[in-house]
Amino acid sequence: MIEINGVAKAFGGVKALRNVNLQIKAGEIHALLGENGAGKSTLMKILSGALERDNGTIHIDGEPVHYKTTQGAREKGIGMIYQEFSLVPALTVAENIFLHQLKKKTLINYKQLQQDAAKIIHDIGFNLDVRKPVYQLSVAQQQVVEIAKALTADVKVLILDEPSAVLGPAEIVHLFATLRKLRDRGVALIYISHHLEELFELCDRVTILKDGRSGETFNIAGTSRDQLVAAMLGRSLNTMFPDRNHITHPENALNYQFDNISLFQKTPVNFNLKAGEILGIGGLVGSGRTELLRTIFGADSQSKKSVIAGSEKLTLKNPKISILEGFGMVPEDRKKHGGLLSLSIRENISLANLHQIANKFGFIDAGRERSVVNELVNRLQIKLGSVNDPLSSLSGGNQQKVILAKWLNINANVLLIDEPTRGVDVGARAEIYQIIHELASEGLAIIMVSSDWEELMGLSDRILVMREGQITIDLPRKDFEEETLIRYAIGAHQTNA
Ligand SMILES: Nc1ncnc2c1ncn2[C@@H]1O[C@H](COP(=O)(O)OP(=O)(O)OP(=O)(O)O)[C@@H](O)[C@H]1O
Ligand SMILES: [Mg+2]
């Protein structure tokens, strides 16, 4: 159905795509797999008309196509769901779904519009009030609207760029069921994800993209995880997780006690944490995990809590004080809260500790800054052109390392990390796990929120599971079991279901 040949694209000096060939059949789910920055999103933006190619040809059903807009691509049957959503929050579900069609009309029959929208949503297996404004929906529901919107045109090809990154486990099951239905209707689907297990569950074939070039295409059946990783990274990955099975914490390790932390105005939660420990926090989206970290860090000013380090009471009133007390925080949304994308890599790293690099007049000592930054860049093996390039020029995994480097630079005692590897490719993920492991071994106390159970179990010494602002269980490493964790996350432990 689709034949891409020799496609190339450069952004200024950056060659995002050098030479890509790709063939997609009707009625298949075709995965694109590659490291951060390999060019997956760029290629898909070209196919969907959001970007123009510099070179190469695209044929749909044997016909060469030259569209230059998403509208042009839609007319050829190509729909795309972007990594960042494109809905209008103030409009209703129905209006969003038919947004492109509405632009052409002067008179709108709202009753008909709502019926048609409800039918599309129903056909893909969901239930949603189409009269609700989009800002009232959960992220998962918004994604349903995105898919429905793509289906209003006569879609032959549906592209999904990391659609599962924002979804909980139950929602992913729904999404996959929807995608399989579309496949069975003969739609060709292109699916991008860094989660290999999803590829094995959902996809029929996978093409590797590496440094802007297309590599081998595999049939998923009969291919191993290791083969895919090797093709994608150009090396094999022996261990994803460092070995934390034999860690013993010294008797006198500093103990942190967190008490009276009230989330969503519910019964407060209490827990402890030792220096050198990695404490995992699991739970479903919306269970209060991010709020817990933000409350500890003092990011939401009004929230109450008591934090004791050893015998000393800390008042972590706001982030500034928390930083001075040796707390660091890596937030879940790298682009919005974690880093300053338009500032340089160097500035992002030195930002939390300008004292250290200031001279006695309060001006930044450029030489000292350079040496501090270079040391951290080497230590974390951050792949970059120059430390003066903007943070936005780096791949997701390397951006995350820069943000970790910022907190290493303050010599933190406690690091709060929210979703350490969201959107990060497998290779960089293993490196980030190694870094977190080493930091704990050096005596840092780490609280890590993650939606990825494998990641939680692979890296934590203990896991707290949260549900509706409460801690439902505190499990030591020897008792880790995915089923147990999920039962406590969804509340099944109470009903014996
Ligand atoms: N608008 C842009 N301007 C400049 N460079 C860009 C732009 N968009 C992408 N790039 C660069 O092109 C390369 C490919 O980026 P792309 O986003 O396609 O990668 P990706 O495979 O989707 O990565 P990820 O897995 O992190 O989503 C990267 O080096 C990126 O920095
Ligand atoms: Mg991408």
Task: Pick out its properties.
497 residues; Rossmann fold; six-stranded mixed beta sheet; 20 strands; binds adenosine-5'-triphosphate; binds magnesium ion
Strand-helix topology:
Layout: E1 2-11, E2 14-24, E3 29-33, H1 40-47, E4 55-60, E5 63-64, H2 70-75, E6 78-81, H3 93-97, H4 99-102, H5 110-123, H6 139-150, E7 157-161, H7 169-184, E8 188-192, H8 196-202, E9 205-210, E10 213-219, H9 225-233, E11 255-261, E12 269-274, E13 278-283, H10 289-297, E14 306-309, E15 312-314, H11 319-324, E16 327-330, H12 334-338, H13 345-350, H14 354-357, H15 366-379, H16 396-408, E17 414-418, H17 426-441, E18 445-449, H18 453-459, E19 462-467, E20 470-476, H19 482-490, H20 492-495
Parallel strand pairs: 3-8, 3-9, 6-7, 7-8, 13-18, 13-19, 16-17, 17-18
Antiparallel strand pairs: 1-2, 1-4, 4-5, 9-10, 11-12, 11-14, 14-15, 19-20
The structure holds adenosine-5'-triphosphate and magnesium ion (MG).
What does this structure look like?
With about 500 residues, the chain is an alpha/beta fold. It has 2 domains: about 1-235, Rossmann fold; about 255-495, P-loop containing nucleotide triphosphate hydrolases (Rossmann fold). Helix content is about 35%, strand content about 25%. The chain has 20 helices and 20 strands. It has helices spanning about 40-45, 70-75, 95, 100, 110-125, 140-150, 170-185, 195-200, 225-235, 290-295, 320-325, 335-340, 345-350, 355, 365-380, 395-410, 425-440, 455-460, 480-490, 490-495, and strands at about 1-10, 15-25, 30-35, 55-60, 65, 80, 155-160, 190, 205-210, 215-220, 255-260, 270-275, 280-285, 305-310, 310-315, 325-330, 415-420, 445-450, 460-465, 470-475. A 6-stranded mixed sheet has the order 6-7-8-3-9-10, sandwiched between helices. Strands 16-17-18-13-19-20 form a 6-stranded mixed sheet, with helices on both faces. A hairpin with a 2-residue loop joins strand 4 (about 55-60) and strand 5 (about 65). The longest helix has 16 residues, at about 170-185. It is globular. It starts with a strand and ends with a helix. The model has no long low-confidence stretch (mean pLDDT about 90). Adenosine-5'-triphosphate binds near residues 40, 42, 393, 395 and 396.
